[in-house]
Amino acid sequence: MTRPCIICVAITGSLPTKTDNPAVPITVSEQIESTQEAFEAGASIVHAHVRNADQSPSSDPEAFAALKDGIEKHCPGMIIQFSTGGRSGAGQERGGMLPLRPDMASLSVGSNNFPARVYDNPPDLVDWLAKEMMANGIKPEIEAFDLSHIFKAAEMYRNGQIAEIPYVQFVMGVRNAMPADRAVFDFYVQTVKRLFGAETHWCAAGIGHAQLALNEWAISGGGHVRTGLEDNVRLDRDRLAPSNAALVRRAVEICEAQKRPVASPQEAREMLGLRPAGRC
Ligand SMILES: [Zn+2]
């Protein structure tokens, strides 16, 4: 049977602003509205950052709490994933919202370059974030910006720092990190299957114009996908994406063309081994 495809929508991120695309949701209420529209279009995971009023990145646990409440109310069953990514704060501030016990959180397990800075993930911080996630019953999503990050995830699984088989997301197309290279992508998939088993779930995200290619590669390759304005604000060279939902609809269309059913939130929870919605 064809495995349903989980669509994750990365609604806001740390970088894009209203100047890049007026549809980028910044306030918590804009984020809830944009998530609901994406949920209704077929997204079953929301990956979220929060912002300050001036649009700069924030790690404010209160904003995360308000966002979580709103999504739970308006998007029943949707999987909530908070970002512990590096732009929103320094050190342990990045995990200050984990006691809110979202279903999932992103976990970067190694360092690499970003377009204008080092994405700094020192080993002691990685260990601490993994420990906090485990203590709060949160499933990590491993952000693999590089091949070595997949091996680090395998080591952490062996050491008991990650409770279940790691759910790895390949991130490609970040300037100064791994480009969207098809042969590398295929090797990533092969490596995840070799380390974690042929049936292992994995997903992929492409940045900027690489989003569409990575959506297509992951959907046709049996993986899951991420889309959304965090990674890409355009539909194509000439048009801005009118909403997060529009990018979700684009992923749904690829699923239809590839004969992959789109996973419901409940199917996504079962595939990822998450607790049923509403239970802590
Ligand atoms: Zn993010």
What would you note in describing this structure?
Helix 1 (28-41) runs parallel beside helix 2 (61-74). The protein has a single domain, classed as TIM Barrel. The two termini are 31 Å apart. The strands form three sheets. Strands 1-2-5-6-9-10-11-12 form an eight-stranded parallel barrel, surrounded by eight helices. The chain has a two-stranded antiparallel sheet with strand order 3-4. The protein is built from eight helices and twelve strands. It is α/β, with parallel strands linked by helices and 280 residues long. The longest helix is centred in the last third of the chain and has 15 residues, at 182-196. The protein has helices at residues 28-41, 61-74, 123-135, 147-158, 182-196, 210-220, 244-257, 265-272, and strands at 7-10, 45-48, 50-51, 57-58, 79-82, 104-108, 112-113, 118-119, 139-144, 167-172, 202-206, 224-227. Helices cover 36% and strands 16% of the residues. Bound molecules: zinc ion.
